[in-house]
Amino acid sequence: MLDVSVIIPVYNAEQFLEKAVESAVHFNEVKEVILVEDKSTDNSPKICLKLASQNSKIKFFQHSDKGNHGAGATRNLGIEKAEGSFITFLDADDYYLPNRFEAEKEVFKNPKFEGVFGAIGIDYLTEKGKQEYQTKFKDSPLTTVKYHAEGEEIFKGLLGFTSKTFGTFFHLNTLTIKKAALERNNLRFNEDLRVHQDSDFIIKLAYHCYLKSGIIDKAVAIRGIHDDNRITKIIQYSSQYNQRQQIYWKSLYDWAVENKLSSEYKTRIYLNYKSFDLSQKKGFKKYYNILKEVIKNPEIFKTKYRFNYYK
Q1: Is 257 domain-assigned?
Q2: Which of 195, 254, 270 is nearest to 229 (CA)?
Q3: The pTM is what?
């Protein structure tokens, strides 16, 4: 039997929080649901306290200074508090489906596997949120990878090195990871990233840990799409999006250098970072820098972002 700690970062989620918790707490595999509240301005803290008082599996924490520290630091605190052998994550406006741990029951029978992930679906909670999401993204019912993979193939696929398209990413809500693997590799969320810290974490996890795809043809969790989703708000402003992506890929490049990744991996990460850096240049300076970078690194054309993404 799995013993899973479900970590839910909570910030201004009063409308959705109870559904998220209820979707997780009933599983026999779930040892505890950890609510980490990040200085909400709505009734989320009261709801957390109420839920914790009603079920001993639900535990409530806040940062020691009661301040707002962002999703990365909030999830990190959840990891520190977790007592289960396995860690999963759930955003407070999302929820698990009944098949959430079906793949895990089989995959973790093999001790070489340290993590498993699956597909996530969409639930449009508001009409405005639906319109914003469909304007920014393809109206796909699933966010998932294209084929089953394990080990280094996943890391290579996420960076776009495989001969066929693997997929942009898998969602954090579908990940189950052994806590021992996080501790052994000193893996935590980058607290300096206010957005994209989940993507940053997933790339590093895929490099350091032996992962396997689970259920990828149907959802194991659902994303709630509503008026206040952060990612659609950021993408409304291309310059802000490019800036956040630049910071994210710079974080990955610094990590790649520190961990002495192969030149092939390091170069690809650098070029993704550079493509967003170049996208923020203006006028003649922009095209001069693009030309200089292309002469130095023609492989920049192999990145899916290139330098004119969201120009």
Answers
A1: yes
A2: 195
A3: 0.90
